[in-house]
Write a structure and sequence with these properties.
Layout: E1 2-11, E2 14-24, E3 29-34, H1 40-48, E4 55-60, E5 66-68, H2 81-86, H3 90-103, H4 110-125, H5 128-141, H6 158-170, E6 176-180, H7 188-200, E7 204-208, H8 212-218, E8 221-226, E9 229-234, H9 237-272, H10 279-291, E10 320-329, E11 332-342, E12 347-351, H11 355-365, E13 373-378, E14 384-387, H12 401-406, H13 415-424, H14 441-455, E15 459-463, H15 471-482, E16 487-491, H16 495-501, E17 504-508, E18 519-522, H17 526-531, H18 534-539
Parallel strand pairs: 3-7, 3-8, 5-6, 6-7, 12-16, 12-17, 14-15, 15-16
Antiparallel strand pairs: 1-2, 1-4, 8-9, 10-11, 10-13, 17-18
Helix pairs in contact: 3-4, 9-10, 13-14
């Protein structure tokens, strides 16, 4: 168990946490949520002891082991993958290494024999004999092939390192598991495996994530960070969201009633304060007014953007025809001989682990790169707006956000019109005057979404649009796209995003040397697609 008692932390004049009291108990998975900058990752570091809080106490049960998802992807470069994962259980790792060193001695003394016997007993008690197979099971579940299990960390790519560090945290049944964005870099199958792992995990899990489906699948309690407080809600993310919306409506209604009452009392006092006959009533109302605690109803610090995409014209029957297209990325052909017909009612999610193929296709059909072979034909009624995965080329200058967006306006270019679109994405007042070359990743994404809303396009193409967004912005974008009447082509690892928007699924498969790129194309909801057993045989061809 972890107990948090009156914990506070401030940086300068900014209070991050104030008198936080919480208890985390075994058998529960706690989802830590809050706006960007609220302190989610900082709170995990307080629990782990990496960051010292100003006051209060964090108490961990005696002899309980905390495992943390490491964020430094290059901290274990000289370790093998297996050793990196095993080091997540330090006691077993140290015993294993000492045991290997004893048996490696050329001259084996009687003292070495006694020590070896002690080590064998400890090794067995800690599950050493099953360690390699257990580690292999976790790595396989997270999508790391067996061919990489004995490589050094310096020999595998960063995406694989992310999976190894996650396996390191999961290994060895820690008493307390702290996970900061564990689904980052995972494909949908690996996320599904992780969900099942955590659902069956018997101890304490505390997780920060922007993946709503993941939070819904694994969390039994949501801990909401807001205004320096952390409030627990029993249930998953959807329950918290519905509850928070209801509480917010009630708070607004209560505040409105109090403001109306205060206005009425003030008017009465002003009208009758000098009237002797009414003076007693005026004094009575003044006392009531003083007791009205308008400041006690603290509004949420959360800001909710609005994403609304309205096409200027209705799309025709001819949307997009792709014929034997080959596309390149980094000078290599990654998509070969690909053909596709897209229809006017399509909302297509491109899924699977072949992410480079999706990006190469989107870049090509949206005119960022040229097709190596083949061609594509957009219909005459189409107007396309594209959200690329890498948006850095859009933000190299030092113009203000308002001036930046103005250049993309197909209609009016006056400040009022342009800033109305920025306001929907929470750029108001001086925020809209910031230079674009100093924006954070999330701010750049919101600028790109403002640009797309301004375009009036009837075809929207998105390559990983939820990266850098907080849960409020992801939900707003999700709702906006679900209501969009045009065509959507998108690539994301957000399960809820796909299941609530897509009516057609296209999965790129690994090449098998047959020439043309392999893919599955089905007109069906995403959850039905995942449950379709017949598709497994196609994937294994």
């Amino acid at each position: 168990m972890i107990s948090v008692t009156n914990v506070s932390l401030a940086y300068g004049e900014r209070t991050l946490f104030k008198d936080v009291n919480l208890k985390f108990t075994p058998g529960n998975c706690y989802g830590i949520i809050g706006a960007n900058g609220a302190g989610k990752s900082t709170f995990l570091k307080i629990l782990d002891g990496e960051i010292e809080h100003d006051k209060g106490e964090v108490t961990v049960g005696a002899n309980e082991r905390i495992a943390v998802l490491k964020q430094d992807h290059f901290a274990f470069e000289e370790y093998s993958v297996i050793d990196t994962v095993m080091s997540g259980n330090p006691q077993l790792y140290e015993i294993t290494k000492e045991r290997e060193a004893v048996y490696a001695k050329e001259e084996f003394t009687e003292e070495d024999g006694l020590r070896a016997a002690e080590l064998e007993a400890e090794f067995g008690e800690l599950g050493g004999w099953e360690a390699e197979s257990e580690i292999g099971r976790i790595l396989a579940g997270l999508g790391l092939p067996e061919s990489k299990h004995n490589k050094k960390m310096s020999e595998i790519d960063e995406a694989a390192k992310v999976r190894v560090l996650l396996a390191q945290a999961l290994y060895g049944s820690p008493d307390i598991l702290l996970l900061d964005e564990p689904t980052n870099g995972l494909d949908l199958e690996s996320i599904e495996w992780l969900e099942e792992f955590l659902i069956d995990f018997p101890n304490i899990v505390i997780v920060v994530s922007h993946d709503r489906h993941f939070l819904n699948a694994v969390c039994t309690v949501i801990c909401d960070i807001d205004m320096g407080r952390i409030t627990p809600y029993t249930g998953n993310y959807d329950f918290w969201y519905q509850m928070s919306q209801m509480l917010q409506r009630q708070a607004k209604e209560q505040l409105k009633k109090r403001e109306e009452k205060a206005k009425e009392l003030k008017e009465f006092i002003q009208r009758f304060a000098s009237n002797a006959a009414k003076s007693r009533q005026a004094t009575s109302r003044k006392k009531v007014l003083e007791k009205l605690d308008l400041d006690g109803l603290t509004p949420t610090s959360r800001k909710f953007p609005f994403a609304g995409f309205k096409p200027e014209r209705e799309i025709g029957n001819n949307v997009l025809r792709i014929e034997k297209l080959s596309a390149e990325a980094d000078g290599k052909t990654v998509l070969r001989d690909f053909s596709l017909q897209i229809n006017r009612n399509d909302k297509i999610a491109f899924v699977g682990t072949e992410h480079i193929k999706k990006s190469a296709l989107f870049d090509c059909i949206c005119g960022i790169t040229k097709a190596a072979v083949g061609d594509y034909y957009w219909g005459q009624t189409t107007a396309v707006s594209y959200f690329p995965r890498d948006n850095s080329a859009f933000f190299s200058g030092d113009m203000s956000i308002t001036d930046w967006l103005r250049q993309y306006s197909p209609g009016p270019k006056d400040d009022t019109y342009v800033r109305s679109f920025l306001g929907r994405m929470l750029f108001s007042g001086d925020e809209a005057l910031k230079p674009v070359n100093v924006l954070s990743g999330g701010e750049k994404v919101r600028c790109m979404l403002s640009r797309m809303m301004l375009s009036g396009a009837n075809v929207l193409v998105f390559d990983e649009p939820t990266n850098h967004l907080d849960l409020e912005a992801i939900t707003a974008l999700n709702n906006g796209l679900a209501a969009f009447p045009g065509v959507i082509l998108f690539n994301t690892r957000d399960h809820q995003f796909i299941s609530s928007i897509a009516n057609r699924i296209i999965e790129f498969l690994p090449d098998n040397g047959s020439g043309a790129s392999r893919y599955i194309d089905r007109m069906m909801p995403f959850d039905n697609y995942l449950a379709d057993e017949s598709l497994k045989a196609i994937r294994n061809e």
